[in-house]
Specification:
Organism: Streptomonospora arabica
Mean pLDDT: 98
Keywords: NADP, Oxidoreductase
Bound molecules: NADP nicotinamide-adenine-dinucleotide phosphate
CATH class of the largest domain: Alpha Beta
Number of helices: 9
Pfam family, one: ADH_zinc_N
Structural class: alpha/beta
Protein name: NAD(P)H-quinone oxidoreductase
InterPro entries: ADH-like_C (IPR013149), ADH-like_N (IPR013154), ER (IPR020843), GroES-like_sf (IPR011032), NAD(P)-bd_dom_sf (IPR036291), Quinone_OxRdtase_PIG3 (IPR014189)
CATH architecture of the largest domain: Alpha-Beta Complex
Largest sheet: 7 strands, mixed
Order of helices and strands: EEEHEEEEHEHEHEHEHEHEHEHE
Strand content: 25-35%
CATH topology of the largest domain: Quinone Oxidoreductase, Chain A, domain 1
Distance between the termini: 11 Å
Helix content: 25-40%
Radius of gyration: 19 Å
Low-confidence stretches: none
Length: 327
């Protein structure tokens, strides 16, 4: 088969469409014939040499895919999947390839009303948002969610899912155009982080109370302001470190406001945890995709062999939503 190889750590042009050995599904794994995958910021970090695959994961990038089941590996006879089934999947790597071996618990059906190629844009965002905003932070209907990077793959999904489940949503982004898109997706308010201080605006938008949950991709540089933006009993969930890995944490505010701070990565979680997240997505999120309340937001679709172009676009942050890569 062919796959995108990271020939050495570096800029986008180190990605090369290369002939490689076919993956062999191990115990509990299913082989998927890939129709499409999607670019994630983590793939850019991996390409730059800053985010190595966890032990046992494929060396090729790609955290999600869609396609058809090509073969059932050992121990998956009673998994409920059959050869030929259309699927999409959460991966710990290997999606930028013609075939990938996937733990059976990380397969999802293609949601009703979504075509096979577009379905590749869903698993990573759906699992990240479901696990962090709902399973970990427990966002409830009527609460306020602050989403940083509202125009990102993760942000566009988080806005829609929180809105569909009855939360109020405030989103940050770097341009008026992106904020317009955030409002179209269900954000109640948008903050241009180049022009305004977000803690002040969040307070204004919540009658002085603050956000109940913050979904953060910046990390260190936003830590103090995120804590400042939280309501009493608020929960901060950090999923990205685009602003560095350390910052100042005012424990006094945590005590007084009874706040909690969480940080997670999906990729390195144990198989059972990933399977539980995927099952939660199938039960609670897929019906909202099927009825159109939550839509995959695809900025553009490119051939997988042009993955380098997708990475350059992602690094310029010119996109809104996901960049899909097809075979
Ligand atoms: N922990 C996990 O399990 C997990 C899983 C998936 C993703 N992630 C993380 O989630 C983040 C988003 O991933 P993605 O694949 O969706 O990336 P993406 O589509 O490339 O989005 C990144 C976004 O960050 C925005 N941004 C940059 N600086 C910002 C700032 N100061 N304030 C607000 N927004 C800012 C960019 O747009 P503008 O600056 O133009 O607004 C861009 O939309 C990444 O950090 C990724 O590593 C974590």
């Amino acid at each position: 088969m062919h796959a995108i190889l990271i020939t050495e750590p570096g800029p986008a042009d180190v990605l090369a469409w290369t002939e490689v050995p076919d993956p062999v599904p191990g115990e509990g794994e299913v082989l998927v014939d890939v129709a499409a995958t999607a670019a994630n910021r983590a793939d850019v970090n991996q390409r730059q040499g800053n985010y190595p695959p966890p032990p046992g994961a494929s060396e090729y990038p790609g955290l999600e895919c869609s396609g058809h089941v090509a073969a059932l590996g050992p121990g998956t006879g009673d998994s409920g999947w059959s050869v030929g089934d259309p699927v999409c999947a959460l991966l710990s790597g290997g999606g930028y390839a013609e075939r990938v071996a996937v733990p059976a618990g990380q397969l999802l059906p293609v949601p009703r009303g979504v075509d096979l190629v577009t379905a590749a844009a869903l698993p990573e965002a759906a699992c990240t948002v479901w696990s962090n905003v709902f399973m970990t932070a427990g966002l409830r209907s009527g609460e306020t969610l602050l989403v940083h990077g509202g125009g990102s793959g993760i942000g566009t999904f988080a806005i829609q899912l929180a809105h569909a489940r009855g939360a109020r949503v405030v989103a940050t982004a770097g341009s008026a155009e992106k904020l317009d898109r955030c409002r179209e997706l269900g954000a109640d308010a948008g903050i241009d982080y180049h022009r305004e201080r977000f803690p002040d605006r969040v307070k204004e938008e919540t009658g002085g109370a603050g956000a109940d949950v913050v979904l953060d991709i910046m990390g260190g540089s936003y830590l103090a302001d995120n804590v400042r933006s939280l309501n009493v009993g608020g929960r901060l969930v950090i999923i990205g470190l685009m602003g560095g890995r350390s910052g100042e944490l005012d424990l006094g505010r945590l005590l007084v406001k009874r706040l909690s701070v969480h940080a997670t990565t999906l990729r390195s979680r144990p198989l059972e945890e990933k399977a539980a997240i995927v099952a939660g997505v199938a039960e609670h999120v897929w019906p909202l995709v099927a009825d159109g309340s939550v839509r995959p937001i695809v900025d553009r679709t490119l051939p997988l062999a042009r993955a380098a172009e997708a990475h350059s676009i992602m690094e310029s942050s010119a996109h809104v939503g996901k960049i899909v890569l097809t075979r």
